[in-house]
Amino acid sequence: MAHSSATTSAPPGANAAAVPADALVYIVDDDASVRDALAWLLRSRRLLSQGFASADAFWAQWQAGQLSAPVCCLLLDVRMPGTSGLALFAQLAEQQLHLGMPVIFLTGHADVPTAVDAVKRGAFDFCEKPFSNNGLVDRVVAALAASAQWRAQADQANAQQALLAELTERERDVMQLVVEGLPNKLVADRLNISIRTVEVHRARVFDKLGVRSAVELANWLKSVG
Questions:
Q1: Are the C-beta atoms of residues 10 and 137 closer than 8 Å to each other?
Q2: pTM for this model (two decimals)
Q3: Spatial distance between the Cα atoms of 36 and 113, rounded to a whole number of angstroms
């Protein structure tokens, strides 16, 4: 493992401190000696890993819900018997799973153009064999940091959706008109309710969503997407 061909630089702040202790690196390679060497290398940097001898074995366990690490990345060989690494990546990308589980391709020289194309289609990076130990682990750490960031954003979005689900239908009606910039009187006229009722619903919306103004409410809703 002597040469690295990683094609992208680590994002700012992508370091081991940004990676939770239970983060997991999935290694998919048909060569047992490569899997063992990578597992040892990752252990030397206190990173957990789990190996798979084929893309089919990995996919079967993933589909069965047996792989559930919240923060993870995938070291994926390009060429393997059966389902190739590229075919597995296409399956992951189809379900957007590569967003929470960044994929780093492990490739021989002949497959570099193919790996570059995969990066353009959303893979995190590729490393050409033989690769630098430090260079590869640095990319793994960066991928795990990206996974942790994605997970945090997904958790926040889920929490926001849960808060929205707590609003009553009338509170949603009032919220929408408030976000459109209507004053309480026009909201009352539009919904055929009293101004006092509008004020009560507006206060409840602000309280449930943890905002203090119409502008803050609009920004909060934008962040939900």
A1: no
A2: 0.74
A3: 27
- CB 53 within 8 Å of CB 36: no
How many whole angstroms separate alpha carbon 156 and alpha carbon 201?
Answer: 24
What is the CB-side half-sphere exposure of residue 96 using CA atoms within 13 A?
A: 2
CB 92 within 8 A of CB 101: yes
Count of beta carbons in the 10 Å neighbourhood of residue 111 = 20
Using only C-alpha atoms, the chain has a radius of gyration, in whole angstroms, of 24
**Alpha-carbon span 108 to 203, nearest angstrom:** 61
Peptide bond into 130 cis (omega under 30): yes
Tokens 């899997």 correspond to: 35
Compute the distance between CA of residue 8 and CA of residue 60 in angstroms, rounded to an integer.
30
Q: Are strands 48-52 and 24-28 parallel, antiparallel or unpaired?
A: parallel
**Dist. CA 113–CA 161, nearest whole Å:** 41
Tokens of 43: 């252990």
Residue-wise pLDDT tens for the chain (225 aa)?
333 333 333 343 355 667 888 999 999 999 999 999 999 999 999 999 999 999 999 999 999 989 888 899 999 999 999 999 999 999 999 999 898 999 999 988 767 888 888 888 899 998 888 878 889 999 999 999 999 999 988 888 888 889 999 999 999 999 999 999 899 999 999 999 999 999 999 999 999 999 999 999 999 888 776
